[in-house]
Amino acid sequence: MSMWAWKLREVRDNVTVTTGGRLTAWYLADPQMWSFRSVADGEALIEAQAVQLAELVGRTVHVRVTERPWSVDAWARACWDNSPAPLPAASLVLERDRAMLSESGQAEKLVYYGVSVGSRSVAAQVGKVLPSLGRRDDEALVARLDELDQVMAGPGLECVRAAGDDMAWLLARSFALGCPVPELDVDEQVAWEATDLAEFTGRVDWSAEPLAQSVKVQALVGSEKVVRHVVVLTVGKMSDIRVPEAHVPWVSKTDSLPFPVEWSCRFSVQDPESTGKEMTRLTDRIRAQIRHYRDDHQMEPPRQLERQDERAAEVEDEMRAEFDGLATRTKGWYRIAVAAETEIEVLRRAQQVVDLFKPAIKVHREFDQFRLAREFVPGEPVANAGHERKMPVLKVAAGVPAATVEVGDRRGHLIGFTVGSAVRAVTWDPWFLPEVVESSGLVPLVGGLGAGKSFLAGGIIYKTALAGQPWTVMDPSGRLARLCGLPELRGVSRVVKVLNSEPGTMNPYQLVAEPRPAWFADEPDPDAALARARTAAQAQRRDLTFDTLRWCLPASTGSREDVQTVLRDAILAVPAAMGCSPRDVVGRLELAGSEIALMVARRLREAAERELSRLFFPTPIHLGDVGRAEQHRLVVYSLAGLPQIDERRPVEEWGTAELLTRPLLTLAAWATLRGALERGPHERKGVFLDEMHEIAQVSTGSGLIQKLATDSRKNNIAALVSTQNAARVLGQDVGNFVGAAFVGRTTDAAAQGACCDLMGLPREVGYESTFGTLSSHSRRDTRKGRLREFVFRDGMGGDDGRGGMERIVVDFSVHQDLVEALNTTPDQARLRMVEVA
Length: 837
Hints:
Elements: E1 8-12, E2 15-18, E3 22-29, E4 32-33, H1 39-54, E5 60-69, H2 72-81, H3 90-104, E6 107-119, H4 122-125, H5 131-152, E7 159-161, H6 165-175, E8 191-192, H7 198-201, E9 204-207, E10 215-221, E11 224-238, E12 261-269, H8 272-297, H9 303-320, E13 329-340, H10 343-357, E14 361-365, H11 369-374, E15 389-392, H12 393-397, E16 403-404, E17 413-418, E18 425-428, H13 432-437, E19 442-446, H14 453-467, E20 471-475, E21 493-497, H15 526-552, H16 555-558, H17 561-573, H18 582-592, H19 595-607, E22 634-638, H20 656-677, E23 685-689, H21 692-695, H22 699-711, E24 717-723, H23 726-730, E25 741-743, H24 749-759, H25 767-773, E26 789-793, E27 805-810, H26 816-822, H27 828-836
Parallel strand pairs: 4-16, 19-24, 19-25, 20-22, 20-23, 21-22, 23-24
Antiparallel strand pairs: 1-2, 1-8, 2-3, 3-6, 3-7, 5-6, 5-12, 9-10, 10-11, 11-13, 11-14, 12-13, 13-15, 17-18, 17-27, 25-26, 26-27
C-alpha cells in the first residue's frame, strides 16, 4: 500500500500495538459443539458467555471469525502412522480418500477475541532513558493481562492466548483478506517489529475505485499472484431472535454457506451507570416527542414512539435493579466479508448472505468498501458510525461465534461428511475410545430396514482391516462375506459358512478362549488374575454347553426342570476344557443310568445326526480342529440360510430347525468373540455382531453382549453391534458402557424415543423427528445407491461425556469395488446379467 499505512506497528506474543501505543490482547476460542444441544444447555452456554463478556466493562472487543484449511496431508500421515500393519492395498485406499478430501476444500473454523488493554504509557515510551519507569509499566501490563486471561478462559468463552502460529494466521488471513494463505511455520513465542510485519503486508496489495462495489485484493502465494474481490456487508436492524429455542446462533449461521465467510465484530462493553444515563436521556427525548403530539397538536403519538418509550424504560430499570451482568449493554458494528475470483461471483455470494438472514436480520451492502474491509485487520479503526448496533450482552452472546461442527477424530479413516450447518470431513478410529478416551469400545449401529447399518460397518471393517486391525464378524445374512472375496483381502481373510461346516464347528467347549498368562502381565497379581480368568472360562463353557444341548431337545422336554437338572449334573461331571465336547456329556448321561438321563442321552444322540445340530458334536477326527484367528485379518462367520424365528408363536410350536437357530446364533457370536480374545489385551481387534437382537434372545447371547461392553476397554476391542431398535441395546443393561453410537433412519415413534435415550438426548423436544428424516427421499426419487445418513455420537469426552454429535452422510463412493460388494439392494438388472452369464 503506497498511499497509506497500516496502523499495526508491533506484535509481542498475543498483544498487538498500533500507532499511538494502543494495546490489544488476542485470544483463540475453543470450538463449541452446538448440534443436538438441549435448549437448557444452549441457554446455559449463552448465559455463561454473556457473564464473561460483562466482565469486560469499559473495554473494546474485536471478534474475528476466519478459517484455516484442514491439512489433508497431515491427516493422511496420521492415519498411516496409526495403521499397525498395512497391507499393500492400504496405501491405495488412503490415497483415494486423500484425493476426495482435497477436492472438498476442508477447513477448520477459528474464532479470535481481541480485547483492548489500554495504551502504552509515556513511561514505556521513555523506558530506554528511564529503565525503572519502563519496568513498572511492564509489570502493570503483565498484571492486567493475567487478569484478562482468567476472564477469557472462563466458561462460555474458554479462550487461550493466541500465540505463535495462531497469531501469525490471524495476521495473514487479515492482511490477505479473502485470499488463500500458505502454511505458516512460526515459533511458539513471536515478536514482530514494524519492519518484520512486511512478511504479511509486503506480499499483498489492496485497491478499490471510488464508489466501487468491492475491494480488489492481490496476494503473492509463493511465486504465484492470486486476485480476489471482497465485498463487506454490515449487519443492520435485528428483530427479536430466540436462540436456542427457535433460531441458530446468528453469527454461526453463515457456516452453512458453501463458500468461506469472515466476520469482524467490534463492540464496546458499557458500564451500567453510563447506560442508565443514556437511557434516561433517551426516555426524556421520547416522552418530549409524545407530549408534543398530545399537548401541541392534540394527536395520538405513533405507536412506534410508545414502544420505544416502554423499551427504554425497561432498559433503564434493568440498569438500576440488582446487577448480575446479564443486563450489560454493548454498542458496536458487525461486518461480514465474502470473496471470490470475480466481482460478478462475489456479488452473487453477497446476495446469498443477505438472503440467508432474511427476514429477522437486515444485512446491508454499503459504499466505502475499502475502509470497511480494513476493519478486518487488527488495529484498524472503525470505518464509519453507520449501523451502530446497541444490544444487550445476551444478544451478542447469542451469536455464539465459536459454535461449530466437529465429530470424529483426526487419526482415523474417512467414513463420510457432516450434513447441515457445515460440511466437515468425518474421520474415525474405533480404537480411539479404549486407547485414548479410556472408555468402552462398544458401538451400536441402530436403524430400520435399509438404513445402511451393514454398509457402514462393512466400510469401517474394510478400511481398518487393510490397515492391520483384525476383525471377526458374525454375519446372519451372509452379505459381509463378500468382503473376503475382494482381491485386496483374498488370502488374508476367511469365510466360515456355518451351515456347510464340518461336524463340531460350533463345539461350545472350543468357542471360549483359554486365558493366557501374557494377558495378565500388567495385573498386580498375575497368577491370581489368570486363575480367576480360567475359572470364569470354564463356567462359561458349561453355560454354553447347557444352553446348546437344552435346545437340541424337543421344546416340551427341554423345558422340564428334572431334565435340566440331570443335564446340568452331566455337564458338571465333564472337565470344562477346550478338548471336551457334548459327546462327553452324552456319555456321562448314559453312565448316570437313570431313566431321565438315558432318555435325554437318546434324544441328544438323535440330534447329533441332524444337519444343524451335528455342528455341536465333533467326530474324533474333527475334535480340536478350530483354527487360529491370528492367521487371518478378517474372519466372517456366515449364518446365511438359518430359519427365521417367529417370536410371536409359542416355543412349543417351533420346529427343530427353529429351536436350533437360537444356540447357533449364540455360538457363532462366541466364536466371533473368541477370535478377538485369542489375541493379547494390547493388540487392537474388532468384533462385529450383525443383527444383535437375534443373539440377545437367549441368556448366553445377552451375557456375551454384556461381556463385550464391559471388557472392550481392557482388551482393546472395537465392538460394533447392529440392531433395528435402540431398545434392544439398552435392554441389555449396557447403556453405561456405550462408547460411540450411530443411529440411522428410524420411523417408529417408540423406537425413536429409544434412540434419544441411546444418544443421551431428551425426549419430546423434537429430536425424535430427526431420526425419521435421515436418508429421506421423494416418491419420484428412484435412484439406486443413495448415500445413507446417520446421527453419529463419537463419545469423545466433553462436559457431558457424549463428545461430538452430528448428522453425517456415509460416503465410500471413491471405492467402487467396496460399494458393489456391500450393495444389498435388490436389482433385477443384476439378476438378468447373472442369468445371461
